[in-house]
Design brief:
With about 150 residues, the protein is of the alpha/beta class. Helices cover about 30% and strands about 15% of the residues.
């Protein structure tokens, strides 16, 4: 790990946030659309990569393809941050497919929780890059709901 952690550039209204499924597929399209609306209402643009509709199977795609989706968003100069659509088992399986040098060369925010935490921790350990343990796209619209 580099000596001092790297903070990606701050986000500004009008920036693009990339969305992808690093683990399980979308299960509830309405929750995804509600999360996208929250992001857009805050003044950000969205770019989706990979399958963003419900599908059979436990994972959104193969391990290598999910890593490719992340790499494509990371390599896209328009995308300033990347938000997981949802967590779930599968992120650990992507680790061997990830290009840590790409992440180091182009610092961006990666945001998520649950199984995404392994990606956040690995980014810091292998690339020295700070990330955000925060909501996933499908949980954003539920953040202000009262507890029942």
């Amino acid at each position: 790990m580099p000596e001092s952690p790297v903070l990606p550039p701050r986000l500004r209204r009008g920036d693009t946030i990339g969305l992808f499924c690093p683990a399980g597929p979308v299960r509830d399209v309405q929750r995804l659309h509600s999360g996208i609306k929250v992001i857009e209402d805050l003044g950000f643009k969205i770019k989706l990569r990979g399958p963003a509709e419900p599908r059979d199977g436990y994972l959104a795609d193969s391990d290598a393809r999910r890593a490719e989706h992340l790499h494509a968003l990371w390599d896209d100069e328009e995308v300033k941050a990347i938000l997981a659509i949802r967590g779930g088992f599968g992120c650990l399986r992507m680790i061997e497919h990830l290009d840590w040098e790409l992440f180091r060369r182009q610092p961006k925010w990666l945001i998520g929780f649950s199984d995404v935490t392994i990606l956040l921790n690995s980014l810091l350990h292998r690339s020295g890059l700070v990330s955000i343990h925060g909501p996933v796209a499908t949980s954003l619209a539920q953040g202000d709901e009262p507890n029942q």
